[in-house]
Prior knowledge:
The chain is 18% helix and 35% strand. It is an alpha+beta fold. Strand 2 and strand 3 form a beta hairpin. Keywords: Lipoyl.
Amino acid sequence: MNFPAELKYTKDHEWVKIEGDIATVGITDFAQRELGDIVYIDINTIGSDVTEGDVFGTVEAVKTVSDLFMPLSGKVLEVNAQLDANPELVNQDPYGDGWMVKISLSETDSAGLLSSDAYQALVGA
């Protein structure tokens, strides 16, 4: 499994890439493997203010539907439009083309997020 060191992680299996006051969010390689073949992504929070821990959408796999939890507080600026027609990008490239949302951070405190090493320890990798 892949755990890029430059990213931050949540206990709910989302990853975050922070660049200034913009954060890109997706689900981890571990999460997509656990879910299996992803067939649909439902994110309708564009333009919404979200608080850390809020559900910002769902991901549907062949066997289950799982909520997506916001790792940091901010405003949803963009949803990855490629996922409408190609939700399998999350399986193929979870840290690249499979990103889910970009948010404008209302605060940049990422102290509650996990490092790559801490996340690997959490999932037993």
